[in-house]
């Protein structure tokens, strides 16, 4: 296989894995202060993602590193043009990580409530801004003939991009609610089930609107994303059906598939481009004009072939070890 294509696929897999796994992390963090004011219950909610949230963020770090090494032109244009939203995402992730570590350092209710809201806001911002960023990439952004982003910050806040942000925010919140159902029991489980049932129809309708709008606001120069979009909607319909039946494991599987297939549609639309120019299609960055040299790609491929399976095996093992439901007890381990 052409190494440029291979690394485009690997970068896509890393971003997809990040959104599927970190998506439920974001959802749980968003819901945290709204599900209970009681510290014990909030500790239970946090403990459902306590062993996983930092490992899930490794997917983003690896995706960013792979983008930088394999497609430096893409990395340079993306991070210069999207500097402010990516900076806000980084700050939110830092605050969120600090909040997980700091909330248990003091038993003062005001202290813990402050950090709980920091977890919430630190989850809302990335969940929203990632959707805005990828909606802009799908729609195309002003890139000139020298591969420079020539738009401003307000260019990134089109109605289509904002809808993408709202859909990602709701989708991750629904995904997180179903994960909480999977990991809890009793009254908390029932409460989260009601929340998920309320979120589901809004998420479904807005995702349909986003997909339909995409046909009118994007070009048709990439691969055909329609099959992936259709199957994504079918997966979300299946998730809703199993949610009503309280078959939580299957519902979570299908929300994961919805996120996976939606992001697959995004990268199919890109290919063979990595950033689409709204000024002139010929000025778009591709997997060839934005890529590193052949020697770099070959070296990276050897390293990835050795270490990626090890990382995947470790993460799968960690999910297996912490697969049990979290019981609502005072002595619950704190994170």
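Q: What amino acid sequence fits the structure above?
A:
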């Amino acid at each position: 296989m052409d190494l440029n294509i291979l690394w485009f696929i690997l970068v896509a897999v890393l971003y997809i894995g990040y959104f599927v796994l970190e998506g439920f992390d974001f959802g749980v963090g968003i819901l945290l202060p709204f599900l209970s004011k009681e510290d014990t219950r909030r500790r239970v909610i946090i403990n459902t993602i306590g062993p996983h949230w930092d490992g899930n963020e490794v997917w983003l770090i690896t995706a960013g590193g792979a983008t930088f090494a394999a497609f430096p032109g893409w990395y340079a244009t993306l991070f210069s043009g999207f500097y402010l939203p990516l900076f806000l995402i980084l700050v939110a992730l830092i605050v969120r990580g600090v909040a997980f570590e700091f909330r248990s350092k003091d038993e003062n209710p005001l202290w813990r409530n402050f950090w709980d809201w920091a977890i919430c806001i630190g989850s809302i911002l990335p969940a929203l801004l990632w959707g805005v960023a990828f909606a802009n990439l799908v729609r195309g952004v002003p890139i000139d003939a020298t591969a420079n982003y020539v738009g401003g910050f307000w260019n990134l806040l089109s109605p289509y991009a904002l809808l993408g942000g709202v859909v990602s925010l709701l989708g991750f919140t629904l995904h997180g609610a179903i994960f909480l159902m999977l990991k809890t029991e009793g009254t908390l489980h029932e409460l989260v089930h009601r929340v998920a049932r309320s979120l589901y129809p809004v998420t479904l309708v807005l995702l349909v609107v986003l997909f339909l709008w995409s046909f009118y606001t994007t070009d048709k120069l990439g691969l055909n994303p329609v099959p992936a979009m259709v199957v994504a909607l079918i997966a979300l319909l299946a998730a809703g059906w199993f949610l009503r039946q309280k078959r939580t494991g299957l519902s979570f599987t299908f929300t994961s598939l919805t996120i996976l297939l939606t992001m697959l549609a995004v990268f199919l639309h890109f290919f063979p481009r990595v950033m689409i120019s709204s000024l002139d299609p010929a000025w778009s960055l591709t997997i060839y004009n934005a890529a590193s040299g052949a020697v770099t790609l070959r070296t990276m491929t050897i390293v990835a072939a050795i270490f990626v399976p090890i990382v995947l095996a470790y993460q799968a093992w960690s999910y297996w070890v912490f697969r049990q439901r979290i019981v609502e007890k005072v002595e619950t381990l704190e994170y």
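Q: And what stands out in the fold?
A: Strands lie at 273-275, 285-286.
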